[in-house]
Input
Amino acid sequence: MNDDLAHLATRIDRTNELLERMLAEVAKTPSTHAIFVDAGYLYAAAGRLIAGTEDRRAFDVDAEGLIDALIDRARTVFADSRLLRVYWYDGARRRIHTAEQQSIAELPDVKVRLGNLNANNQQKGVDSLIRTDLESLARHRAISDAALLGGDEDLVSAVEAAQGYGARVHLWGIEAPEGRNQAEPLLWEVDSQRTLDLEFFKPYVSRRTAAYEAGAGARPSRDDVRFVGAQIAAKWLASRGRDALVELLPGHPYLPGSVDQDLLVEAEGLLQYSLRGQADLRRALRDGFWDHLQAQY
Output
């Protein structure tokens, strides 16, 4: 009898040791999050909030700046987690990228998924793409948290599929001028809700005007914009100091939303030219800013 008890105690000790090792490994594995953006919802809701219309022809969206701002916000929300990537879902005729969608697809850590766009400019197949990605990433334990920017009730099944594999789904919405712009069943299913307000979108969504379309002058070259970015970086470093630089560098190639917005505003003032909605020039501006800072480190 004593031998049996001793054997049982030994087995329990071994089991406890295995559990402790497993928990230690889990503790060392960083959490991972991904951001899922239904561009149809984003453009419609942000357009109505800023320009009073869902018609994309009536406003411009700095998609690159907005994606960086979403990444920055997620970094704050999921403080102990790393970003897997941003998934950007949009519609296109015959699933052929537009120039804007192509520029978004070229951004680091961004994956563009395209559904069809019908004759009425309505997206088709986007919800199923979101579900496929959410479910697959959750099933393979590639993500622990998903930030979902959308509002369609059809996304409920995507949320349930991801949650079934242990992932937590956090719904991000856009402030509505009146009422709601997200389906209640979707709000009920998610693990948390967060609303991005007018102030969040103001730097990245602007009403299109005749003056803007004409431009304030000749379009600057990428080299000109890159040089201005370096100028602003030198000024920023002189005023903030090396401690601020050390804090900023780990976020490369992304800039905190406040720094990015200050960079944009100052550059437009120096260039006397609007960079809103011009992804290639915005990228050149950030490249110049980062190049100078990294050269000083």
The chain is about 55% helix and 20% strand. Residues 29 and 81 are 10 Å apart (CA to CA).
